[in-house]
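Tokens as discussed.
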């Protein structure tokens, strides 16, 4: 498919989602729209539930209780060539729809008020527009513990009166938590832990909140399953973009690096889904903070050439830091290490080569990762 054709298709698909989300509720009967009439489904960890449902005036609403933070997967079961859309939204007061009976100006005003704070987290679609593509019959969304609504819409005027969907849930803390599309709703993440997330046509921006415990280089690692126009930025605690972020790319992998003082920051990652060959792209995200590389002026090697009094003196350290000395650049052979209690460290070594050589030294501040290597000739 040519790029302009693909973009046209995606715009049409986005319109289908928006139409179902914004106007589908208008066809819901008053009786079915009240809160007491909405069926509730409570999910269980590592188990799935198959729901065989009937449309009421072309729509259906299910209240879904998520028992813990984790990953919710919803799937259309064997929809064949039926026009169906499933939309997952946050909790809202469905009783506000009970006065909507006709599609007119007052209905639009009521709908706007009702859906003002409603957010769309995910969708599954079966439609001629998507060539009934099975890959669009399911979606997985990272969610917080809480209550959500599954809205089902019949997108045509055919004789289709029912549908079937399977809901699965897996508890876990290693998923993004929708909706994290702004800094104020950022998913809190821990350093050195990998998180699973995804982009789609209605979710192209994700924010993560990270704490830098000591001054150092914040590293952000992102790995996409499929290629997109991927972007990354870091914001400070005032939500202003941090300058100096350097991003490198290796195929679908991106690494960002920027030196930051101790504090709270936000990582924003974005994708241009209109430019992708897929309507949904999963990715992983991991952060770490590396200690600042030692300066060569802070390291002194004392080689007694044949005696056992060889040592390394390291200065300008933060108390509690760990200094490691390696024999090789790949850090496979550790020669010695020491934890300093002051701003200096003395590391005693076995006899160094009388002919001289090379040592590879790193420093690790408390609670953050080891620095990159400083090569020292002696």
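Sequence:
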């Amino acid at each position: 498919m040519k790029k302009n054709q693909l973009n046209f298709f995606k715009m049409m698909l986005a319109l289908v989602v928006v139409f179902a989300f914004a106007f589908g509720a208008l066809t819901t009967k008053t009786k079915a729209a009240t809160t007491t009439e909405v069926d509730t489904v409570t999910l269980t960890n590592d188990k799935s539930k198959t729901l065989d449902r009937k449309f009421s005036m072309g729509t259906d609403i299910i209240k879904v209780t998520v028992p813990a933070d984790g990953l919710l997967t919803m799937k259309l079961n064997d929809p064949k060539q039926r026009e169906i859309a499933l939309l997952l939204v946050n909790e809202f007061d469905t009783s506000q729809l009970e006065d909507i009976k006709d599609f007119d100006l007052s209905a639009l005003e009521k709908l706007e008020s009702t859906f003002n704070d409603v957010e769309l987290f995910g969708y599954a679609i079966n439609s001629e527009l998507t060539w009934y593509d099975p890959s669009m019959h399911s979606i997985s969304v990272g969610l917080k513990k809480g209550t959500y609504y599954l809205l089902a819409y019949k997108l045509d005027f055919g004789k289709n009166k029912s549908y079937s969907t399977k809901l699965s849930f897996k508890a876990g803390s290693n998923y993004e938590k929708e909706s994290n599309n702004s800094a104020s709703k950022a998913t809190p993440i821990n350093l050195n832990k990998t998180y699973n997330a995804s982009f789609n046509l209605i979710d192209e921006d994700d924010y993560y909140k990270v704490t830098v415990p000591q001054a150092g280089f914040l590293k952000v690692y992102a790995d996409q399953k499929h290629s997109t126009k991927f972007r990354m930025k870091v914001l400070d605690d005032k939500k202003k973009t941090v300058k100096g972020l350097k991003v490198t790319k290796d195929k679908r992998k991106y690494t960002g690096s920027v030196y930051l003082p101790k504090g709270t920051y936000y990582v924003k990652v974005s994708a241009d889904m209109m430019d992708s060959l897929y309507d949904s792209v999963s990715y992983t995200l991991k952060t770490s903070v590396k200690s600042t590389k030692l300066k060569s002026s802070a390291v002194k090697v004392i080689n007694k050439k044949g005696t056992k009094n060889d040592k390394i003196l390291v200065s300008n350290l933060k108390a509690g830091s760990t200094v490691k000395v390696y024999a090789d650049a790949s850090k496979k052979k550790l020669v010695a290490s020491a934890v300093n209690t002051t701003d200096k460290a003395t590391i005693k070594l076995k006899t160094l080569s009388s002919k001289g050589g090379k040592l590879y030294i790193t420093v690790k501040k408390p609670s953050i990762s080891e620095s990159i290597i400083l090569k020292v000739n002696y």
